[in-house]
Amino acid sequence: MSNPWVLIFVAGLLETTWAVGLKYTHGFTRLFPSIFTLIALAGSMYLLARAAQTLPIGTAYAVWVGIGAVGAAILGIALFDEPATAPRLLFLTMLIGSILGLKYTSH
Predict the structure, then answer these.
(1) What global pTM score does this model have?
(2) What CA–CA distances, in Å, run from 1 to 4, 47, 61, 75?
(3) Cα 69 to Cα 15: distance, rounded to the nearest angstrom
(4) What is the rounded average pLDDT for all residues in the chain?
(5) What topology does the record note for this protein and the membrane (predicted)?
């Protein structure tokens, strides 16, 4: 897996995983959710670092954060009954557009 865009996408998915995992750790007082969350965090950082060897760091970091933020927000709606208001969904859609824009305008 050497394509930096694949690496950054998987890193973003792992960021979503560890961000949502934080909710299940209960402040890192639950062992297995805490271990799983820390493994996802380490994997996410490693893949971000690998992708940043090729991609500009500003682009790599922004895409990584964006994927994690969108994923965490969507899972927050699905798993934790967070609000899915029209303005919130609009801004998430705009964030997805920004992520795609960064990908397609980066060299």
Answers:
(1) 0.91
(2) 8, 10, 19, 26
(3) 8
(4) 96
(5) Multi-pass membrane protein
Angle at 50 between CA 8 and CA 55, to 5 degrees: 65
Q: What is the amino acid identity at position 15?
A: E
Beta-carbon contacts of 45 under 8 Å, excluding residues fewer than 6 positions away, are: 11
Interior angle at CA 97, CA 91 and CA 101, nearest 5:
145
DSSP string, 39-81: HHHHHHHHHHHHHHTTS-HHHHHHHHHHHHHHHHHHHHHHHH-
81 vs 75, 85, 87, 95, 105, CA distance in Å? 9, 12, 16, 21, 35
58 touches 106 (CB < 8 A): no
